[in-house]
C-alpha cells in the first residue's frame, strides 16, 4: 500500500535538491517545476495534469538522479524506475490542496509513485501530512511528511485512494516545504519543426478552452472511480 522510509541526507537537502531548478509561481504560496530524464533518443516523458506549466521541462539534475538512487537503496528496490519529477515548494501559507488521485493518463501501468519531503529548516517540528482516503470506504489516515522522508505507493494503490497534503498546526511556525513527486511516464514526445509530436506522429497541441473544461471533467471522474480509463487525448495544458 503506502510505504514510508527516511533517506540519509544531511541538513542541507532542501538547498541541495532545489538548486539548479528554475521554478515558476503557481500562486503566492506555491512554486513548481517539471524535471525529466530524457530517453536515449531525446524524447521527453510527459505527465499531463490539471496544473498548467508555462516553462518547458528541465533535465534531471545530478541531485535528482542521486535522489532516485537513494530511494532505490532505501526501499530495497534496485529496479524502481522513474523518469518524471514534479518539484514543488510550498510556503507555510499554502493550504489549498483538495483530495485527488494522481492523474494516471500518462503513468506506466504497475509502476510506483514516490513523494520525497524536506524542509528549509531541517529541524521542522510541525511537518506537513499526507492525508489518504480510501475510495470504497471513505476511511482516512495520515502519514507525517517528516524531514527527508519518502512515501511510495503503486499505481493500483493510487487508483484505489485519494490523497491531499495538509499543513501542520496553524498556530505553529513552519518553514518552506520541498516536495518531489517521482513517477514513470509511458508517454513520450519530440519536437519537430517547432511543434510537439507523440512517438506515433500525432501532434500534441495546447488545449482549447473547451478542451480544458473537458480535461477537468475527466479528472473529476478519475477522482470518483477506481477503474477509470482515459480516452485518447491529443492535447495538453502545459508547455513541455
TrEMBL record:
Highest taxon, organism lineage: Eukaryota
Pfam families for the chain: 2OG-FeII_Oxy_2
UniProt-listed InterPro entries: AlkB-like (IPR027450), AlkB-like_sf (IPR037151)
Entry-linked SUPFAM superfamilies: Clavaminate synthase-like
Residues covered by the Alpha-ketoglutarate-dependent dioxygenase AlkB-like domain: 48-183
Alphabetical list of Gene3D superfamilies matching this protein: Alpha-ketoglutarate-dependent dioxygenase AlkB-like (2.60.120.590)
Protein name per UniProt: Alpha-ketoglutarate-dependent dioxygenase AlkB-like domain-containing protein
Native source species: Rhizophlyctis rosea
Lineage: Eukaryota, Fungi, Fungi incertae sedis, Chytridiomycota, Chytridiomycota incertae sedis
